[in-house]
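>> received
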Amino acid sequence: MHKLKWLAVLVALLLLISSIQLNTILGKTEINKYAILVGIGHQYGNDLNGDKCAKLMLSVLRDAGFASKNIKVLTNKQATKQAFIDAIDWLKSVENAGSKIVVYIVCHGLAESICLYDTAVTHRWVRDLLSFKSHKQLVILDSCHSGGAVEPAEDGVTWAAPYRLLMSSASIELSTYTTAKYTRWSEAFILDGIKRGLADANEDGKVSMEEAFDYAKHHALSGGLISDNYGSDFFLGE
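>> returned
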């Protein structure tokens, strides 16, 4: 009995150590990673499919080690101005310089504004809201004329900031059109490029944002997703 007692204690200690090690491993992949995903699919009588894109990005981030509790998803009627403010306030309350954060927005837009579910907000308003401490920020805007958030339009506003990788699905002048499932750019960028890993140009087993962007640009322009009359300036930076 004495030996069994010590054996039970030993097993308990091993389980505790294993648990600590597991929590440490999970901590490296989940703790301090945060995201806000905004996707509007049904608005103004149009089917933008932004809600599907947000859910697709959600699955990509989970695969990348983001804990579900650390991801705020706002789709359709949930994606109001106040809900967006609340989500940003939550993110600011938990993130720090070492955090990895993602802000992904799919909605209708103009060169100087984006359309949340209940109202349009200016790029200036969003820029002032997106003030984070994190040194590893990814901000993606997938909307018509979304290049106005990258290269200043007449308002002189850009969402660019230190420690931020900023990506846009279209130039200031042009629109983002949709397929039956996702926006054309998101379908190539997220689904094929990142989730299916087809954008891994250097075959290192990882897909960088640059690889995913180049993949989406190439296949959207030459793969039949976008007709020729949109031209090569469909993608910002051409």
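>> The longest helix spans residues 2-29.
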